[in-house]
Design a protein that fits this description.
With 256 residues, the chain is mostly beta strands. It folds into two domains: 222 residues, Hexapeptide repeat proteins (UDP N-Acetylglucosamine Acyltransferase, domain 1); 28 residues. The chain has an eleven-stranded mixed sheet with strand order 2-3-6-9-12-15-20-23-26-29-32, with no helix packed on it. A ten-stranded mixed sheet has the order 1-4-7-10-13-18-21-24-27-30, with no helix packed on it. A ten-stranded parallel sheet has the order 5-8-11-14-19-22-25-28-31-33, with no helix packed on it. The longest helix has 29 residues. The protein starts with 6 loop residues before the first strand and ends with a helix.
């Protein structure tokens, strides 16, 4: 399907293969796949592509020249900038993992009423998930790269030109600066502040805020790369060290 600028789409198109609410604004030269659902008050820019099976929730925005892959879900009031690429199976704007405990120890869910805002020229890999904010916004700055399977929690802010490699995760309310690199399968706990230019290598667990330019490596706890390499070298020497220590103990116990 190709749309015309600022027009209202009909309620039903092509015998039920797509459902588009009244009043949706679709720009010029758009392509909308099969079995797509677009709810009310959505605005779609020019030259946007939406793959088969997509869901665009009420009040969402998609900027010019963006590409939304097959089976992508944009929950209500998700805002996508220009030239954004969202790969297949991504979920943007899902409820954040927010619970509180009652006096009797039972849990209740805190309403998640914020939004997700994605800046221009971002790339979001297949099956990544970015939660809506509890209040306010979960934000990706411009040119952020999100790898496949990444999880970004509610109220997280990621600065421009940062990169999160596949299977990494950022817990709620953590603020990440510009030009930060987070490696495969790394994890950050919530409510941290990671300043500009930090590097967090693969499988690193981060539990404390980081100053600008920090570089961490190691499964847990994370540490400076030089210390990590030193510890790894010592681990390799442990068998010989143990053997030497046992020899010294035998000599002390039975001196010649």
């Amino acid at each position: 399907m190709r749309g015309n600028s600022a027009r209202s789409a009909p309620t039903l198109l092509e015998e039920g293969s797509r459902w588009i609410a009244e009043g949706v604004e679709i720009g010029e030269d758009c392509e909308i796949g099969r079995f797509v659902v677009i709810e009310a008050n959505v605005r779609i820019g020019d030259r946007v592509v939406i793959g088969d099976g997509g869901f665009i929730g009420e009040g969402s925005r998609i900027g010019d020249d963006s590409e939304i892959g097959a089976r992508v879900t944009l929950r209500e009031h998700t805002w996508i900038g220009k030239r954004v690429r969202v790969e297949a199976g991504v979920v943007l704007g899902s409820d954040g993992f927010g619970f509180a405990q009652r006096a009797d120890g039972t849990q209740f869910k805190i309403p998640q009423v914020g939004i997700v805002e994605v800046g221009d020229d971002c790339t979001i890999g297949a099956r990544a998930t970015i939660d809506r904010a509890t209040l306010g916004k979960t934000v990706l700055g411009e040119r952020v790269e999100i790898g496949p399977g990444v999880m970004v929690g509610h109220n997280v802010v990621i600065g421009s030109d940062s990169r999160l490699d596949s299977l990494s995760g950022v817990s709620g309310s953590t603020k990440i600066g510009k030009q930060v690199r987070i490696g495969h399968h790394a994890g950050l706990v919530g409510h941290l502040k990671v300043e500009d230019g930090c590097t967090i290598e693969a499988c690193t667990g981060v539990t404390k805020s980081l100053p600008a330019g920090a570089h961490l490596k190691g499964v847990y706890p994370a540490m400076a790369p030089a210390l990590f390499e030193q510890q790894q070298e010592l681990i390799g020497r442990l068998p010989a060290m143990v053997e030497k220590l046992e020899s010294i103990e035998r000599h002390i116990a039975s001196p010649v």
